[in-house]
Amino acid sequence: MKRSLLFTCLALALVACGFNSRAADQPPRIAAPEVAALLDQGMDVLFLDTRTDRDWSRSEVKITGAERVRSSAEITRIIDTTAKDRPIVTYCA
């Protein structure tokens, strides 16, 4: 009984912390050096700034040309209307 309860608590904690493997339908993650390499190659990268209004207004760092998005519906619209071969990078910090 204790072992089962411990396992359940651990599983819930991992889910709450976002510890899970990437699902097949989720886009891959990309690190800053990889983005820099794309830009160095001349790729037209679309940056989507997903920060909250509060975080965005307090930040001194903003990527020139990035599109600010405030909802998943906006993200979906942008993805649906962007060329499929254009890399899209979302960021929130």
Number of strands: 3
Number of helices: 4
Envelope shape: globular
Low-confidence runs (pLDDT<50, min 5 residues)? 1-21
The Cα radius of gyration reads: 18 Å
- How large a portion of the residues is in β-strands, by DSSP E? 5-15%
3D structure, described in words:
It is built from four helices and three strands; from the N terminus they run ααβαβαβ. It is of the alpha/beta class and 93 residues long. The protein has one domain (28-93). It has a three-stranded parallel beta sheet with strand order 2-1-3, with no helix packed on it.
Short description:
This protein has 93 residues and is α/β, with parallel strands linked by helices.
Question: How do the helices and strands line up, and which of them pair or pack?
Answer:
Blueprint lengths: L1 H15 L15 H9 L5 E4 L3 H6 L8 E2 L3 H10 L6 E4 L2
Parallel strand pairs: 1-2, 1-3
Fill in the keyword field for this structure.
globular, 4 helices, 93 residues, single chain, alpha/beta, disordered N terminus, 3 strands
